[in-house]
Specification:
Length: 111
């Protein structure tokens, strides 16, 4: 069974029948047996989003980059300060649409 494919057994049989095949192994008949993996993949258990973010951050911290060296890249690729209000203003709905908010309490101070 291929758990990563969200099809029912009946759907799999219909797809194979459409291809004129009896078994999913027939799809791989042209692949030489000596290069086929005949064991389950050795993949570590899954992580939550928080665990994965912490893990990837730890891996990234092993790298050295522009923060560790003098950077001559230019074109905006160097360290520079962006006030946090810029991000908050860019995320405002008014900047994602051509429509103006008509309620004065919403648009007050932004238009």
């Amino acid at each position: 069974m291929h758990r990563y494919i969200p099809n029912t057994e009946a759907e799999r049989k219909d797809m194979l029948a459409t291809l004129g095949m009896q078994d999913i192994e027939e799809l791989f008949a042209d692949i030489p047996d000596k290069v086929r993996l005949r064991r389950p993949l050795q993949i570590p258990k899954s992580h939550s989003e928080l665990e994965l973010t912490a893990h990837m951050t730890a891996l990234a911290n092993n790298n050295l980059g522009a923060r560790n060296y003098t950077c001559f890249l230019g074109a905006g690729a160097y360290d520079h300060y962006i006030p946090s209000v810029i991000n908050h203003m860019l995320l405002r709905q008014e900047f994602f649409t051509a429509y103006t908010p008509y309620q004065p309490e919403i648009s007050q101070g932004t238009l």
